Amino acid sequence: MPDKSWKRKLEKKVKDYLKDYPACHDFYHHDRTKKYALEIAKKVKCDEDIVYAGALIHDIGYKGNELDDLRHNHYGMKLAKEWLSRIGFPLEKIDNVLEVIRLHDNVSWADDHEPTEHVEVKIVQDADRLDNLGAIDMARLSYYFGERGLPIYNPAKVGRTKRLFLHHSLLDQMNRSPMKSWKNLNFTASRSISKKRYELTRKIYENLKKELEETHLK
């Protein structure tokens, strides 16, 4: 029977590495992404080792590179290669995990989209976006905007940009990211798993929009 002790070792590495790291990309975000990815993997033919490892470490490149966050995937790939080669992860699968990390933020509706048929990449893309839905994500997103001093509401329209968080408001980002994410998931299984969280997100967005417009336009 294959030795799966690498799972325990990898989880410990991620937990230790991200101890006390801010909530948006802390250990719990990675752990939830792994959970969602494995749920999707049950309904899609794939290599679950690649899914498990890729989901658990997809965003580790944020730490220490916050001023170059658009390249967090490249920093994460470098760290992942080092970790995976030391914990007994199947060596022949490491390149596939690195591909998951490289493309996990690459989505079909983005301006700089790079097409891929890599099923494990698509699963982790969806799982990452499932953590962009629901009450926890609304808290994560609010935390992120507060941390950077960005506004909750801005009545002025902000043009499209490849950079996700550039001068626009929390409300605008809710509409750009979580709301759009659900409709553009790769798998029907992903939408099925996350439908309740999407509905909650939509209600939070609509109520917040209504209250902000009522108060900020006075």
Properties at a glance:
single chain; 218 residues; mainly alpha; Hypothetical protein af1432; Methane Monooxygenase Hydroxylase, Chain G, domain 1; 2 domains; 10 helices
Write structural notes for this entry.
By secondary structure, the protein is mostly helical. The protein folds into 2 domains: 1-109, Hypothetical protein af1432 (Orthogonal Bundle); 132-218, Methane Monooxygenase Hydroxylase, Chain G, domain 1, CATH 1.20.58. Helices cover 60% and strands 0% of the residues. The protein is built from 10 helices and no strands. The protein has helices at 5-17, 27-41, 48-57, 72-86, 94-103, 119-130, 135-147, 170-176, 178-183, 188-216. The longest helix is centred in the last third of the chain and has 29 residues, at 188-216. The chain is globular and about 60 Å long. It starts with a helix and ends with a helix. The model has no long low-confidence stretch (mean pLDDT 87).
Compose a concise summary of this entry:
The chain is an all-alpha fold. It has helices at residues 5-17, 27-41, 48-57, 72-86, 94-103, 119-130, 135-147, 170-176, 178-183, 188-216.
Helix content bin: 55-70%
Q: Structural class per helix/strand content?
A: mainly alpha
Q: CATH superfamily membership of the largest domain, which one?
A: Hypothetical protein af1432
Second-tier CATH architecture of the largest domain: Orthogonal Bundle
